[in-house]
């Protein structure tokens, strides 16, 4: 097989491939077997008709079509590997010549990863917020702990912000009952914002047994985006009583003997959380610095695919009804044109980020172990509320295992840059990421390596 690569632009190539018919003999053998099993020819058992008989019955063109359709994908990948082409997206393939008995020729145009020059990581410098712990933050942590041991008692008064109520709900649109919006005995904390807009205003000031009706837009179901008359009936009003923050509470709720020891522990917890936030802030700022200082030609078809995916996901919640989606955007003070422009900007940034981090991962020789891939799968499975085995099955069916691998690899590449960059807090103190996240573990000599493009075994 002969192949050449023409660079049409920094992000697109044309691959010219010529395959002698001698190399296609295995494809012809498989084509004859497949066609023989599909066609009944008098005098021959199923699957046993000779090649010449099949060609006389079906025509040479049918056989050639079967051979070409099977051979091109494999020969394309062979040409990609031979030319060390890092392809992106779907290829556009055109058969240019079928010289029967001599050779097959075809061309492929496909987007490729551009060559990217990244800045020296040691020269990157960002500043993050200081770790400052206010007494109010410790008080809030303590109150949350007290709330876990609190008890609900009848308020004996109209509902106020923060109260716990039991409510019944019903809704109508143009006089028609909305069955999916009706419920009884629903527990709700006033002011939590977990229910429909306007419900808090209706509940506050209501006594047990009182009903109020208000207008709000439904956010789901057949009437999503429509104004509905919603009736809320308060069945009960309760308030949470908290235990006193004293030594007795400390002994009941923790391993500490005094409330002062418990507060000190909560202060340390708040401080650690803020140090972790410093790490996240550093990661985000360094990534922004990388994107600002790195020139990246963007492959148009990859960007278009990202735009299509994001737009599809947005409209999916509205049963792919563009009219309903546009109405929702208008209710949020946004036009479809603004939404489309925002999606394009976000998609271009996402593609640029992926390309930059992939280039860095290559330069830094970042690898992903089976354990790291498994940990990500377990984490994602927990997020979606499914078992790891079910998540892997879905990922395999949708061809997403490679994307999961790539995300882990990009994350490791970015973490490596953060450690090499200069990160200080607002007071000028250097951030010690080894102290925060632990030192980088040495590579395990016997650990299996996951190769990009292959399916990793999940144990």
TrEMBL record:
Protein name: Trigger factor
Organism: Kibdelosporangium banguiense
Substrates-to-products reaction catalysed: [protein]-peptidylproline (omega=180) = [protein]-peptidylproline (omega=0)
InterPro entries: PPIase_dom_sf, PPIase_FKBP_dom, Trig_fac, Trigger_fac_C, Trigger_fac_C_sf, Trigger_fac_ribosome-bd_bac, Trigger_fac_ribosome-bd_sf, Trigger_fact/SurA_dom_sf
Similarity comment text for this entry: Belongs to the FKBP-type PPIase family. Tig subfamily.
Alphabetical keyword list: Cell cycle, Cell division, Chaperone, Cytoplasm, Isomerase, Rotamase
Subcellular location: Cytoplasm
Domain PPIase FKBP-type: 162-215
UniProt cross-references to HAMAP family, sorted A to Z: Trigger_factor_Tig
Stated role: Involved in protein export. Acts as a chaperone by maintaining the newly synthesized protein in an open conformation. Functions as a peptidyl-prolyl cis-trans isomerase.
Coarse class of the protein's main subcellular location: cytoplasm
Entry's EC annotation: 5.2.1.8
Domain description: Consists of 3 domains; the N-terminus binds the ribosome, the middle domain has PPIase activity, while the C-terminus has intrinsic chaperone activity on its own.
Upper taxonomic lineage: Bacteria, Bacillati, Actinomycetota, Actinomycetes, Pseudonocardiales
């Amino acid at each position: 097989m002969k192949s050449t690569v023409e660079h049409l632009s920094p992000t697109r190539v044309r691959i010219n491939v010529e395959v002698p018919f001698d190399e296609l003999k295995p494809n012809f053998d498989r084509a004859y077997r497949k066609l023989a099993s599909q066609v009944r020819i008098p005098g021959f058992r199923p699957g046993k008709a000779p090649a010449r008989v099949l060609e006389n019955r079906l025509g040479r063109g049918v056989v050639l079509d079967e051979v070409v359709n099977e051979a091109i994908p494999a020969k394309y990948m062979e040409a990609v590997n031979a030319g060390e082409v890092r392809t992106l997206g779907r290829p556009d393939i055109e058969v240019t010549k079928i010289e029967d008995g001599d050779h097959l020729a075809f061309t492929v145009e496909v987007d490729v990863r551009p060559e990217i020059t990244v800045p020296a990581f040691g020269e990157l410098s960002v500043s993050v917020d200081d770790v400052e712990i206010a007494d109010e933050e410790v008080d809030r942590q303590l109150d949350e702990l007290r709330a876990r041991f609190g008890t609900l008692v009848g308020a004996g008064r109209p509902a106020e912000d923060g109260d716990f109520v039991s409510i019944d709900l019903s809704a109508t649109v143009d006089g028609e009952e909305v069955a999916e919006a009706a419920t009884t005995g629903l527990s709700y904390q006033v002011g939590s914002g977990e229910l429909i807009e306007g419900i808090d205003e209706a509940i506050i000031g209501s006594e047990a047994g009182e009903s109020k009706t208000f207008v709000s837009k439904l956010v789901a179901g057949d009437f999503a985006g429509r104004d509905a008359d919603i009736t809320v009936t308060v069945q009960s009003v309760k308030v949470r009583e908290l235990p006193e923050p004293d030594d007795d509470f400390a002994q009941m709720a923790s391993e500490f003997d005094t409330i002062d020891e418990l507060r000190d522990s909560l202060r340390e917890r708040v401080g650690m959380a803020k140090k972790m936030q410093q790490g996240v802030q550093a990661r985000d700022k360094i990534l922004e610095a990388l994107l600002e200082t790195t020139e990246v030609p963007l492959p148009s078809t990859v960007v278009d695919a990202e735009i299509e995916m994001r737009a599809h996901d947005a409209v999916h919640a509205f049963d792919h009804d563009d009219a309903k989606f546009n109405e929702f955007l208008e209710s949020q003070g946004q036009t479809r044109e603004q939404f489309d422009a925002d999606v394009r900007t976000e998609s271009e940034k996402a593609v640029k980020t992926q390309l930059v981090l992939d280039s860095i991962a290559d330069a830094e020789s970042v690898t992903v172990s089976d354990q790291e891939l498994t940990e990500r799968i377990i984490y994602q499975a927990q997020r979606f509320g499914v078992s790891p085995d079910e998540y892997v099955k879905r990922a395999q069916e949708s061809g997403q295992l490679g994307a999961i691998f790539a995300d882990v690899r990009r994350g490791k590449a970015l973490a490596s840059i953060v450690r090499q960059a200069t990160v200080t807090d607002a007071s000028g103190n250097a951030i010690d990421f080894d102290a925060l996240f632990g030192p980088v573990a040495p590579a395990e000599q016997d650990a299996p390596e996951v190769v990009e493009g292959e399916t990793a075994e999940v144990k």
